[in-house]
Write a structure and sequence with these properties.
264 residues, globular, 10 strands, single chain, 4-stranded mixed sheet, alpha/beta
Length: 264
């Protein structure tokens, strides 16, 4: 396993690799480097024969506060940056999906954006009761593209998906378990231990049986690939327009966004 700059990687147990999104001073917000590494690491995991299961978490009391605002501002200004981040965003989703090793996410505190994509695409997701899951895209002024279309309707149904994605309505860990968005909800102080326990059980199981079962089940998500690709393209189209610029400014100024009348 190679070195990463914004991800901490260590062995949590025999055969269990722990991946930690590490930017604790900013609640593990994902910058350009972190975004690229979140796309790349799953291929490295897939190739490493010593890895039999993965636990992914954020450092400290947050999973990830989403995309770094400086990265988003750069995307609104520069086409080359948009193309690079677009490719990475596809990689985050498809590389988690196609990684043969089982992935367990430990969701504590806020989980937003690219970090949320990893958290919900994990094969088993363990959330703390007070975890705060929010997609965040429409509040930013862009389409919900980086994972929402491929996974939310399958997990919680179209009605709930539309309600939470269109309104950016937050979901607690307890609510997420009740609506099927996560696998399990536990007390906040038990999140990491429970996720590690599950990953350890997976690592001790039949690698062939578990990996082939994961592959077969993920064909449901692969069938939603065209919807995901379209939603991601619509999201990145939005980064060229005035609503995204207003959304970033509103976040900077900590106020509600003032979007223009719709024309799409």
């Amino acid at each position: 396993m190679r070195e990463y700059e914004k991800l901490k990687v260590d062995w949590a147990a025999d055969g269990v690799l722990r991946v930690v999104i590490s930017e604790p001073s900013r609640r593990n917000a994902v910058d350009r480097t972190g975004h690229r590494e979140l796309a790349e690491i799953w291929r490295d995991v897939d190739r490493d024969d010593d890895v039999r299961a993965v636990v992914v978490r954020g450092e400290g009391e947050a999973f990830s506060a989403g995309g770094d605002l400086s990265m988003i501002e750069e995307m609104t200004r520069d086409h080359a940056t948009r193309l690079e981040v677009f490719a990475e965003a596809r990689g985050i989703v498809y590389n988690v999906l196609n990684c043969s090793k089982p992935v367990v996410s430990a969701i504590q505190g806020p989980a937003v954006g690219a970090g949320l994509a990893v958290a919900l695409l994990a094969d088993v997701s363990v959330a703390g009761r007070t975890a705060r899951i929010i997609d965040g895209h429409t509040r930013l002024g862009v389409a919900a593209g980086d994972h929402a279309a491929i996974i939310w309707p399958l997990l919680c149904g179209m009605a709930k998906a539309k309600y939470h994605l269109l309104l950016c309505e937050p979901v607690t860990g307890e609510q997420a378990e009740a609506m099927g968005l996560v696998s399990l909800c536990v007390d906040d102080d038990q999140v990491h231990d429970r996720a590690l326990e599950i990953a350890t059980r997976l690592a001790a199981g039949s690698a062939e049986a578990i990996r082939l079962t994961k592959y077969a089940l993920n064909n449901w998500l692969r069938m939603a690939g065209p919807s995901f690709d379209a939603s991601l393209a619509m999201e990145f189209l939005g980064f060229t327009g005035p609503d995204a610029a207003e959304g970033v400014l509103a976040l900077r100024e900590k106020r509600p966004p003032r979007f223009r009348p719709g024309s799409a």
